[in-house]
Amino acid sequence: IPELMARAERALAGLHLPGKLHLRTADGWHGWPSAAPFEGVIATAAPARIPPAFIEQLAIGGRLVIPVGAGETQVLRVLERQPDGLHELHQLPVRFVPLVRAEPEA
After folding, report:
1. Which of 28, 24, 20, 22 is nearest to 2 (CA)?
2. Neighbour count for residue 64 (Cβ, 10 Å)
3. Per-residue pLDDT tens for 38-69?
4. Pairing between strand 38-42 and 73-82?
5. Contact at 8 Å (CB) between 58 and 7?
6. Residue 21: Cβ-neighbour burial (10 angstroms; 0-12, 13-18, 19+)
């Protein structure tokens, strides 16, 4: 949603954070393949299941923080990608807005 990204840009600019921030408006389900691998991914909208791209684009040792679930049944999951697979570190019941997809799931 372009309007939300513009709002985020203004808010982040006011924080004077060190380092570079890169913002992008796109279908979040697909991640950001051209910028991968990521050391950390924080999702602020809940998909019914973890998008495969989020895991594929996570670096070894990288962490994914993502709310997962539909409606009122959501869990904030913290996962770490290791050479032998994905390891769950934490879970916490939460309620986030749903992850909106540009195209319906097949």
Report:
1. 24
2. 22
3. 999 999 899 999 999 999 999 999 999 999 99
4. unpaired
5. no
6. exposed
